């Protein structure tokens, strides 16, 4: 199964200057684990120590928000996952 994960260009330096990485997995969580397996420097940025998504990120599957329970959401061959940095402030 081939899934494409897109990350912000801001973090591409942690993924060999790639903004799109092909990963494998049956859920968003498995795909993100494969992403950080391929590019370990991304782990501390997008995942917590427990392997959950950092609160400052949101996940979209084929343009649809995966919240809530994004890490358990199933994915299919050919899906695109976008990991989006949320902007906080006031």
Quick summary of this structure?
With 90 residues, the chain is of the alpha+beta class. 17% of the residues lie in helices and 23% in strands.
Which characteristics define this entry?
alpha+beta; Ubiquitin-like (UB roll); 2 helices; five-stranded mixed sheet; 90 residues
Explain this structure.
With 90 residues, the chain is α+β, with helices and mostly antiparallel strands. The chain has a single domain, classed as Ubiquitin-like (UB roll), CATH 3.10.20.30. The chain is built from two helices and five strands, in the order E-E-H-H-E-E-E. The chain has helices spanning 28-38, 43-46; strands at 3-6, 20-23, 57-61, 64-65, 80-85. Strands 2-1-5-3-4 form a five-stranded mixed beta sheet, with helices on one face. Strand 3 (57-61) and strand 4 (64-65) form a beta hairpin. The longest helix is centred in the middle third of the chain and has 11 residues, at 28-38. The chain starts with a strand and ends in a 5-residue tail after the last strand. The model has no long low-confidence stretch (mean pLDDT 95).
> What's the gyration radius in Å?
12 Å
Number of helices: 2
Query: Count of DSSP E strands?
Result: 5
Largest sheet, in brief, is: 5 strands, mixed
- Euclidean distance between termini CA atoms: 41 Å
Proportion of residues in helical segments: 10-25%
Mean pLDDT: 95
CATH topology: Ubiquitin-like (UB roll)
């Amino acid at each position: 199964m081939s899934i494409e994960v897109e990350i912000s260009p801001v973090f591409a330096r942690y993924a060999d200057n790639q903004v799109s990485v092909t990963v494998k997995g049956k859920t968003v969580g498995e795909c993100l684990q494969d992403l950080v397996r391929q590019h370990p420097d991304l782990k501390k940025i997008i995942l917590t120590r427990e392997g959950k998504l950092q609160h400052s990120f949101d996940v979209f599957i084929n343009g649809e928000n995966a919240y809530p329970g994004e890490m358990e959401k199933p994915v299919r061959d050919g899906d695109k996952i976008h990991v989006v940095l949320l902007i906080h402030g006031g």
